[in-house]
Design brief:
about 15% helix; alpha+beta; 6-stranded antiparallel sheet; 2 helices; Thiol Ester Dehydrase, Chain A
Length: about 150
Amino acid sequence: MTAAALGSEEIRALIPHAGRMCLITEVLSWDARHLRARTHTHLDPAHPLRRDGRLDALHLIEYGAQAMAIHGGLRARARGERAAPGWLAAVREFRFAVERLDDLGAALELYAEPLHADARGWLYAVRASCGARELGGGRVAVLPAPSGR
């Protein structure tokens, strides 16, 4: 089942990121095995993660983690539940093909694929591209946030 696209408002209802820290603006497609999203937020001069006018490629990890959160939120919603909050726990084998994101000039496309998910945490493969150009990717692990957080 591939679900319909989602816009910013529906994304904001799924994840805890607020304001300009909600970096992904559009879900293009998703099902239980993947999520494909798009955004132009990396081009915003007021991007909250920019330093000295630059947005470093290191922030692809945050974009990937948000793609994971959206996918988890959509999967939970499909079960009639709300996704549990999580904390970024580990990043493995993440490779970068660019140094920065703010100079790309086109949309970022983000992909997230769950490799493992249970009550102890979630492990995803994430990657990003700009057109046909691969920008980076790797594995990201998230642990459930402690109760009361």
